[in-house]
Structures are given as structure tokens and as C-alpha cells.
Amino acid sequence: MSRLPVSLLLIGVLVPGLARCASPAGRYQQALVQEQQGVPCFGVPAIRTGDAPAKIAGVSVMEVGTGGAAIWERDFLRDGQAEPTLAPDHCLRYGDGGTSPAPRLQPGKRYQVEMWGGAPAQRGAPQSRSFNGYFCVVDAGGSPTVNAVLQGKDGTLRWDACGALPAQPMGQGGR
Asked: Which of 131, 114, 129, 35 is nearest to 69 (CA)?
């Protein structure tokens, strides 16, 4: 047997197997951050054709640059609650639910939100989903305003949406 057919045979067997190990499209997505009466509310992007709505198992908020410790977290499974199905027009409000009150978010600080869960697959086991986003709170004349921070085309976070913020060390979400 020549080397070419053996190589083609190996490619035909290995490539589909490796593709199954890769992350499916849509596993990691941008979380949507919007404001509801001065409080952040976290959502998911519009569903792509063929995707099922995400069931959210948990959400956590961290202050960027402080080592990743959650300042507020809600874990539906740990709390014995059903995972909410999050349609694109719904969101989870910061501080709602949980066993302890959420700390007040401070103007001039950078925050990150992470949501995790899954979505039913068209066939096979449910697919994991992870949603990640950044935001800040600015003081708009004595009233807190939540600003979402988006990534530019170059992948850098656009913190300028927050006005003048203290410098953040590189490698800690400040990009």
C-alpha cells in the first residue's frame, strides 16, 4: 500500500474525530449588559438559526483587576432552583435572588460578568454555553448609569465608554 492512500485514510479517520473534540460554534459568546433603573441586567445575544435558548445555571460579577473573586454570584443549581431559560429579550438583574444582598456597584470601577449554562443540542448531549461581558457604572449627576463595554475590532475592550477610570494592570481584564 502506498503512502498516499494510507495518509488519506488517516485523514479521513482522524479529522472527523478531532472535529468532535473542538468547541462547537456559539459555546463562548458575549453577554449583553443593559441598565434597568440604575442596575445592570445581564442577557444573551439573539439566537442564531438552529440554536435553542440557553438555560442559565449561574451568573457572577467580579471587579476587574482584583483576582477574579465574585462580588455577587447566583448559582441556580447550587440553590436548588430550576435553571431559567433566557430568551434574548430577557435578562437577569444584578442582586436579584441569592441568599445575601449584592454590594453596591461603585462608579469608577470596572466589572466583568460571566454566565454559564447549556442549551439543548439538536442531537446528542446538551451543549455548554458561556457568556462573558464587561461594564462600568458612571455617576451621571448623582444617579448611577450602567455602561456596557464592548470589544473593538482589534479585540481591545473599549473602556472609554466609562469616561476616565483608574489605570488597570495589563493581563487583568484591562486589555
From this structure: 114
